[in-house]
Amino acid sequence: MAKSTAPATQSKHRRWVWALWSALAGIVSAAAFLAVAELVALLVAPESSPILAVGSFVIDIVPQPIKEFAIATFGEADKVVLLCSLGLAVTIAAAIGGILQFFARPFGLVVIAVAGALSTAAVVTRAGASVLAAAPPVLGTLVGCAVLVLLITRLRVWSGEVVAGSTSRIESPDAETPAAGQVGRRSFLIATGAVGLAAVVVGIGSRMLNATSASIDAARRELRLPEPRTTVTIPNGAELDVDGLSPLITPNSDFYRVDTALTVPAVDPSTWRLVIDGMVRERVELSFDDLVEMGLDEYSITLTCVSNEVGGGLVGSAIWQGVPIRDILKMAGTQAGADMVLSRSVDGYTASTPLESLTDDGLDAIFAVAMNGEPLPLEHGFPVRMVVPGLYGYVSATKWVTELKVTTFDADEAYWTPRGYAAQAPIKFASRVDTPRTGKSVAAGTVPIAGVAWAQTVGIDRVEVRIDDGDWQSATLSNPINSDTWVQWMMPWEATAGTHYVEVRAINKNGETQIEERAPIAPDGSSGWQRVLVTVTA
Ligand SMILES: Nc1nc2c(c(=O)[nH]1)N[C@H]1C(S)=C(S)[C@@H](COP(=O)(O)O)O[C@H]1N2
Ligand SMILES: [Mo]
C-alpha cells in the first residue's frame, strides 16, 4: 500500500487500520465459505470440493503453452504451485471483498457471490457431476455472505464507537473518543476469532476426509477382482415388460441406502482385515486377497430394510459376488453353545445374526465383494459386506465389515437391539404395487397393475390382486431367478372411470398368506396388504 503523504496522518492511519480489519473479516468469510463447502461436499458429493473443481477448471482452460511452461518450470510441483496461486488469489479477493463491504457496502457481498457463481459453474460442469454437486458451493456462498455481514456489522459498530460524534454511516472514521470502542472491538474480535477457528477446524477436517474417500474411490476403480467361478443365469421370462415396474435387478445407483454412518467409511482394501474371534477354536484373520482367492461365486439376493413401510422402497435386488460365510466360520471352528454372530463394521456398527443362518448349507449367506458386476460401491460397504438371505439388513447385512465375533444372544447385543428393534428379525414376506401409483390418474381401458413380491429363502408362490374389495385374482409372475430374489407380477385390469382401490397380497411357497394386519416397522418390520387408490379418467 502507498505511503500516505496527506497531512491528516491520524485519519489516514485509522482508515488503514479499518481496511486491515475488514480485509481479515473478508478472509475469515472466505474460510467459512470453503469450510462449509468442504463439509457439504463430504456429506453429499465428495468430489465436488470447490477449490479442487476450480483448480481443475483452471488446468482445463489454461492454454497449452502456459501448461508446458508451468511443467517445465515447476516440474512435479506444478499442481502445488497452481493450488498455492489459487489460494493466494482467493485470499486477495477475499481481503478486497472485506474492504469493499466495509467502505462500499454491499460490494463485498458481490465479490463473494461472483466467487460462488464461478465455483458453482466449475463444479457442475465437471464430467459426471450430479445435481447435488452444486450444493457445496451454493451453501458455502450463503454462509460466506452471512459471515461477512456479521463481521463487518461488528466492525462498523467498533469504528462507530471510536469515531467522535459518530453517525450511523461510517465512511471515514477519523477521530478517536478516548476509551471508546471497547465493546465493539471485543465483539468483532470474538466473532472473527470464533468463526475463523471453526472454519479452519471444519475445513481441514472435511478436506482430509474428502481426500481419503477420493483415494479409496481410486483404489476401488483400480481393483481387479477375479472372475467368478459360477454366475447367475437369468432365466427366460424373468423380467416383465411393464412401464413403471421396478427392474428385476436394481441398478447400484438406484439401490436404497440405509446406515448410521454420517460420512461414508473409506476402507482401503490393501489394509482391510477380517477377524473371526469369540467362541471359536482358532482365531482367523484374512486379508482382502485371502478372501477373494477362496474363489468368488455369484448370488442373486433381494435385500430388505426393517424400516421399509408397506409399499416402500427400502428393498432392492442385486447380483452379488462373494464367498460363503460358512466356509470362513469353518476355518475358525465354532464352539458348542454359540448361537449368534456379532458382526462389526469399521464404524463400530454391529449386527446380531443367528449362527445357524450363517452356517446352514442351504442358505447363501455371503461376504460380498461385488454388486452387479462391479466392486461394492463405497456407500454399499466397500470392500466387503455381509448379505444374508431372509433376514432384515440391520441384523445381517453389515457393510464395511471387519469382525465376526461368535457369541450368544445372552452375552451380546447389537447396535439396534437397545434402540427398540428385535435382536432377531427374519424378513416378513411382502408384495408391492409399483404401478399405478396412489394419486396418479390413469385413463379408462386396459391398465396393467404391476409390482414386485419377495419371500427370501422360501420363494413366492402366488400374488393376488383385488379391486374394490372384489374377488382375489391371481397375477402373472415373472420366472423367478431363485427363492432369494423378488419376482415381478402383473395383472391387466379393465379400468372404468372413477376411483378404485387396488389391493395386493402374496402367498409364499409354504402356502402362507402375507400378514394382513398392519404393523409398524419397529420392532421387527412392517406388515399389511398394500392398498392403492387409483383415479381412472373417462
Ligand atoms: N456398517 C453398517 N452396516 C449396515 C448398516 C449400518 O448402519 N452400518 N445398516 C444396515 C441396514 S439397516 C440395512 S437395511 C442394510 C442396507 O444396505 P444398503 O445400504 O447397501 O442398501 O445395511 C445394513 N448394514
Ligand atoms: Mo435396515
Main sheet?
5 strands, mixed
Tally of helical runs = 10
Report how far apart the termini are: 78 Å
Report the C-alpha radius of gyration, rounded: 31 Å
Instruction: Report the portion of residues in β strands.
Output: 15-25%
Determine the fraction of residues in helical runs and give it as a percent range. 25-40%
Strand segment count: 19
List unreliable stretches of 5+ residues: 1-9, 165-172, 174-178
The rough form would be described as globular
Ligand types: the ligand Nc1nc2c(c(=O)[nH]1)N[C@H]1C(S)=C(S)[C@@H](COP(=O)(O)O)O[C@H]1N2, molybdenum atom
Structural class: alpha+beta
Give the averaged pLDDT, no decimals: 91
Give, in order, the helices and strands.
HHHHHHHEEHEEHEEHEEEEEEEEEEEEE
The figure for the number of domains is 3
Q: Which strand order does the major sheet show?
A: 2-1-10-5-6
Keywords: Membrane, Transmembrane, Transmembrane helix
Domain Oxidoreductase molybdopterin-binding: 262-413
InterPro entries: Ig_E-set, OxRdtase_Mopterin-bd_dom, OxRdtase_Mopterin-bd_sf
Pfam families: Oxidored_molyb
